[in-house]
Amino acid sequence: MADKEPKVDAATSSSPSVTPINLVTEDHVRAALTSDKGAAAQLTDWKVVDFMNKGDNYASEVTTVEVKYELDGKSSKVVYVVKINSGKTLSGERVIDIIFRKECKFFLDISPQINSALREIGHTEINVPKCFHVGLEKGKEVIFLEDLRARGYKMADRKRGLDEAHTTLVLRELARLHAASLLLQNKTPDDDLGEKYPYLKTDWSYFITNYDSVLNTLKESAKLSQTIARKMDGYERVNAWIDMIIPKIEEIFSKQTKHVLPKVVCHGDCWNNNLLFRYSETGHPEDVMLLDLQLINYSAPAADLNYLLYTSMTGDVRKPNIEAFLGSYYTAFKDIMEAGGQTIPFTEAQLLKDFKDMNLAGLIFAMVFVPLVLFEPEGEADTSKENKEDLAEMLRETREKSLETIETNPLVKPRFLSVFDEMMELGIIP
Question: How many whole angstroms separate alpha carbon 256 and alpha carbon 355?
Answer without folding.
Answer: 10
